[in-house]
Design goal:
The structure holds 2 protein chains of 2 kinds. By secondary structure, chain A is mostly helical. Helices cover 57% and strands 0% of the residues of chain A. Classes of the chains: A mainly alpha, B mainly alpha.
Amino acid sequence: MSSPISTWDGATVYYTSADAHGLLMVWIALASAAVIGAIVHTCMHENKSATAVRNGNGKH
Amino acid sequence: MSPEELQKMIEMSGAINMEIFYWWCTAVMILIHAGFLAYEMGASRVKNTLASAVKNILAFAFIVPTFFFFGWWIYLSMYNGLSPDFAAGAAGVPWGASMGPNLADNASGVFWAAFVMFSATTASIMSGAVIERIRISGFIMLAILLGSVVWILAASWGWHPTGWLTTKFGFHDTAAAGCVHMIAGWFALAVVINLGPRLGKFNADGSANDLPGHSMPMTTIGLMMIIVGFFGFLGGCIIYKTGAQWVTIYNTPATLSAFAFNTLMGFAGGVIGAFVISRGNPFWMMSGGLAGIVSVAPGLELYYPPLAFVIALVGGGLIKPLGDIIERRFKLDDPVGAFAVHAGSGTWGIIALGIFATGYPHIDAPATSFGGQLLGAAVMASLGFSTGYVSSRLLKSVGLLRVAPESELLGLDAAELPAHPYPESVSATAAAVRTGPTAEAGLSPQAV
């Protein structure tokens, strides 16, 4: 992935992938998936913890 | 130096001063979150200390990316109601030129950051009301909805230069008592209704038990940190203009001096009002300082300071009786009085402006009026409550709202987290002894 600018003279938008719309979408999708994945993971952890406590095996 | 070069230099100096101002407002606002963190931990029993902390920090962390993905776009585009202005919202789409490093845009990043902190504040307000029994996953979803959708929609309607509540009805709320405090307080109330009380909070005959938090000093210090953080919050409510007077979010003139007079008078009035009414309860007294500031927030740039003091005195005095009504009459368990402090004083503040500061002109909008304020308060309360109720009801129906009773009785730290808040000499068992047998008796969630 190369820089979207070749000189600082007159540069405006210069963030990584600024010149590659498709790649920006990839980063947005990955970041969104990470947010959703973290919530799902939290939910699964809570379910497992609750089961362990119910069975008398609170693991922490 | 040519006049053009001089002009360019002045403009760049102004842009950088503006960046510096909002950068530090944002940093100071983080103290609000730190304060809520301490406040909630102190208000929790020992066995839930870290769970309350984790929940609060996660709200902040999840709001940052989601506010980037859609929150900022909602603010910029939804000022007409529920039909977005896509052209206005273009600056807030996550793939836009303004949403990242851009040498031609010194403003978007710092404004976005300040708004993220407002979002985190709304989620923190709700966070305290649901401690010790909400699922972290369910809470995160509610925090995202409140912090990255609901409050910012309300802000677009009533805390925006062209928001419909202002342009059509003259609604005025300079320091966001409506879109932040009312929305969060009413949202929290709706969640608390669906969530139910903590085990042991109410007896079968309906009487309430006291479930004291494990550290009133931590709670009190947390509240004072929130007050410090509010100077960043309120600073973030004024617009810096290069070479010109400050303006409010409605483009009406204002000064930070006016903010300083009325913020401190509001704090003092709120503390004294709550101190007297609660007979010196430190929790309500410090909450009163916050309620006092919220009470005067809508007219922070308008009030004569002694009037601000009186308005805050009433706002601070209201919260304890309101908290008692919520608990004793409606049998709702709001451990930190989030509804009373934020929705109560926010509603009072919005209406107070309609009583004491009518007729102030807006730019291309009706002047301030009692009717405009009343309508704005009704919209904020309805939006906050309805979205909070529907979303938490939905989570409840799929089992994602409340922890299992066994986990709640054991304590959420032991049940879910790989850490302990204090050395072994301070144990959950000790906390159980302190809170008494009623609180730990294992009453069913339905035992109200």
